[in-house]
Specification:
CATH architecture: Sandwich
Distance between the termini: 49 Å
Number of strands: 8
Order of helices and strands: EHEEEEEEE
Number of domains: 1
Largest sheet: 4 strands, antiparallel
Structural class: mainly beta
Shape: elongated
Number of helices: 1
């Protein structure tokens, strides 16, 4: 129903490990936009951690069955005469794409942002919900064909 995003993400991860000297199987730096996704009843819920991002710096777009989440983390207000000692927080524009299956209703996505957490609720499409199909019987006007 909900599929992971970028097919090149694994290549990027491996290249990052090689360039940073990290041991294989370890990840030296977390994703700037970590995500959890789960199904709850009749909807999928996708949760992104976006600490330090203001709500007006979040952009959500759906084109065909691709949901794009973009967020910009801007630099903190540091006085001009300050000397930076540690700068580990990633800054800039970050983006994730989710490919939504046909069984999800992309027209009714709800988004909520609170305390640095963006929550998206994506309903299951009506056509994808389980339903009963009645089996009819032939009426008395049924014709028999003989050979």
């Amino acid at each position: 129903m909900l599929m992971r995003t970028d097919p090149f993400r694994e290549f990027d991860r491996l290249a990052q490990q090689m360039l940073s000297g990290a041991a294989p199987g370890t990840w030296s730096r977390p994703s700037p936009m970590p995500m959890d996704a789960y199904r709850s009843g009749e909807e999928f819920v996708v949760v992104f951690d976006l600490p330090g991002v203001s709500p007006d710096a979040i952009d959500l777009d759906v084109e065909r069955n691709v949901l794009t989440v973009k967020a910009e983390r801007r630099p903190a207000d540091v006085p001009d005469n300050a000397e930076m000692q540690v700068a580990e927080r990633p800054l800039g524009v970050f983006s994730r794409q989710l490919f939504l299956g046909d069984s999800l209703d992309a027209d009714r996505i709800e988004a909520h942002y609170d305390a640095g957490v963006l929550t998206l609720k994506i309903p299951i499409a009506e056509k994808a919900k389980p339903r009963k199909i009645t089996v009819g019987t032939a009426g008395s006007d049924r014709q028999q064909i003989s050979a």
